[in-house]
Specification:
The longest helix is centred in the N-terminal third of the chain and has 30 residues. This protein is mainly alpha-helical and about 300 residues long. Helix 4 runs antiparallel to helix 5, helix 4 runs parallel beside helix 7 and helix 6 packs parallel to helix 13. It contains 13 helices and two strands. Strands 1-2 form a two-stranded antiparallel ribbon.
Amino acid sequence: MAGHGIVEDEENIYDRNKVQPLASTPTPGQLKEGKDPKASKVLGLEELLSLEVWRASLAEVLGTAVLVFALDTIVISTLQTETKTPNLVMSVLIAFAVAVLLLATYPISGGHINPIVTFAALLTGLISISRAAIFILAQCVGGILGALALKAVVNSGIERTYSLAGCTVTIVAPGLNGPTVIGLQTSQALWLEIICSFVFLFASVWMAFDCRQAKAVGRVMVCVILGIVLGLLVYISTTVTATKGYGGAGLNPARCLGPAVVRGGHLWNGHWIFWIGPAIGCVAFALYVKMIPSEHTHSY
């Protein structure tokens, strides 16, 4: 996409897209003073007082809140309609909602609205620890606000029946010999979370991280692809198991946290899976990225 009819030299484009080092080599004077520019850049403590970062975090709060409200509403309404293909309908609607919200928040915060994306960006060196911490905190607050908004508009019967569409591994259901725990085994749910998180990062988020791909495809298409991949993973994780009690891969710890805090109860059972699984997936993705030559990546 050449601007104003000017085509840049290929070597310049190649050099510009390289990952820039977190900091230049410290001078002898800096070493004597005991300063470590690289560590300072990684920590990004100055961003704790940055108005720009806090404005971006506000977009993360609102974006995640709307995301949780929209996704959980989609889940509940799809199940209530008793359609023959609820998983398919739900996945398509989720893909559309995610794409729209990414487009809405991208210009302000980069459109993370998901701790998985933020943690992956941190591990690959695209953002500092301080910015990542602020964003993840904002996303968790947004997740809780979204769940509170949903609780405010649904009746107690729907809230009790669907548990605010929270993330579940197992539930307690009535059985012939009394209450019975049904759902997915812990190891299976953890592996699904790890695999789906890695695929999400590998197949779509990496495209957003890569400047050349993002520019060639375009912002709108990147957001659409992100939504489609997420929708496909939701469909796969809810269909391949076909187990009552398991709500499918969470793929967004903040979305799982909101209903768990607001509704509580069995939503806390196995809740750690929706944090540890994505974290392991992010680490695996970061290791994969480190094996790629630096000219194939970029930084913000």
